[in-house]
Amino acid sequence: MGQKTELTIADQRLLETVWDAIAEGKSVIGAVRVYRGLSPVELERTAGLGTEVIEALEAGIRPPSHDLLSAIASVLQVPSALLAE
User: Fold this and answer.
1) What CATH number did the domain enclosing 48 receive?
2) What confidence category does residue 11 fall into, taking pLDDT thresholds of 50, 70 and 90?
3) What pLDDT digit, counting tens, does each position of 23-57 carry?
4) I need a surface site. Which of 6, 60, 67, 84 has the fewest CB within 10 A?
5) What is the enclosing helix (H) or strand (E) of 75?
6) 57 in any annotated domain
7) Do residues 16 and 24 lie in contact, with contact meaning Cβ atoms separated by under 8 Å?
8) pLDDT > 70: what percent of the chain?
9) What is residue 2's predicted lDDT score, i.e. its pLDDT?
10) Distance between alpha carbon 31 and the CA centroid of its chain, in Å?
11) How far apart are CA 10 and CA 58, in angstroms?
12) Of 32, 71, 37, 36, residue with least CA distance to 53
């Protein structure tokens, strides 16, 4: 039998935030970033990224690479698969 995994209230809130962002056509990265209380600049600085990278990703101007998603996911403390839109 499969192992049952229970979500914490924080996990549930995060998933609701992500689903709401998807339903509204918004960026998942942006939704999780805001949920974590970070500005684009703070996320870039913490993830070691160049300027305006996050804004370009959130606007859909720049496609994310695997390494980029991994760096962002690490800072946001989520699996990188959650951020892959």
Assistant:
1) 1.10.260.40
2) confident
3) 998 899 999 999 999 999 999 999 999 889 999 99
4) 6
5) helix 66-76
6) yes
7) no
8) 93
9) 54
10) 7
11) 23
12) 71
Q: Which two tokens stand for residue 75?
A: 């800072």
Measured from the Cβ of residue 76, the count of other Cβ atoms closer than 10 Å reads 21
Q: How many domains does the chain have?
A: 1
User: pTM of the prediction?
Assistant: 0.83
Position 4 scores a pLDDT of: 55
Q: With beta carbons less than 8 A apart as the criterion, state whether 33 and 76 touch.
A: yes
Q: Span 10-34, mean pLDDT?
A: 91
**Largest pairwise CA distance in the chain:** 47
Can you tell me the distance from the alpha carbon of 29 to that of 21, in angstroms, rounded to the nearest whole number? Answer: 9
Do you know the residue count of the chain? Answer: 85
What counts of helices (H) and strands (E) characterise the chain? 6, 0
Domain membership of residue 25 (yes or no) is: yes
